[in-house]
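Justification of computing resources. Each target in the renewal requires a structure prediction run like the one illustrated here; the chain below, 289 residues long, is used simply to show the kind of job we budget for.
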Amino acid sequence: MEITKELIEANWPLTQVVIKPMPLPGKGGTVGIVEAKEGKYTCKIPGSWKTPINLDRDLDAFDFLHNKNFQYISKLLRTKDAKKFIKIGDKLIYLMEFIEGNHPEWWNTSTFSTIGKITAELHSIQGFPFESDYRPDIAISQAIEKAHKFSFKDEYIEVLKSVRPFDNLTKVLMHTEITPRNIIQKSDGSMILIDWDEVGIGPAVLDLGVSLINHFITEEDLAIRRIDAEAYYQSYFALRPMSPEEKTYIFDSGVYWACLWVEFGDIEKRWNKIKWAIENKEKIKALHK
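Resulting structure tokens:
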């Protein structure tokens, strides 16, 4: 579906609209830039799996978090009739304030320390009324169904099945994928989280495990980025403590995310990294004790 000047001006309180492509679009839908006299906005059409009910719940997070003084999220632009999004055919469309900046430097201890603090602040906010649509059990089932394309299919399935369920762990308001890729750092150094497609109440360890193997172990030489990892987890636990038992599930979460991401890069290298992490489980778990 094409986003046009006429479509935007008919539905949102914007004038002199110019539509531009997003330089680095995300994987979760169609994204573009809307420049107008009133400001600059990100226009997004989420993936086809998002229903109006699902999207309405996701977008509730914008006003909710602003009301809670959470400063790490952009602002949603309501339509002329105060709606969060519009529906054209089978497409859902919404606009957010565009954040000028770049993804933060990945291998920077200060970056991960700040990300840990932001994650802890988000997890400490109470009262959000909706659970996340994201279901690890479903994602694991889907990954197992697609495992036939890997030369290491049987081992891969065995590892996925070894991941302990997260259902009975502490649930918080989670983003689901807080990584440098989903953060924009502005010129003043402040950071804004983007891609809130799976926001909602869910297990805290899901947010805490996404970087454990994917980011804190290098792909080329299988080295642990200990300083970055410890900065991240120490920053988080200083604001939001977690029981020793629950911390052990961060490793499960790390394995889970690494398995789901294995196809988005050099598959063999990523699989070797997962196997290495499992063989060195105690070293990895020491990063977040």
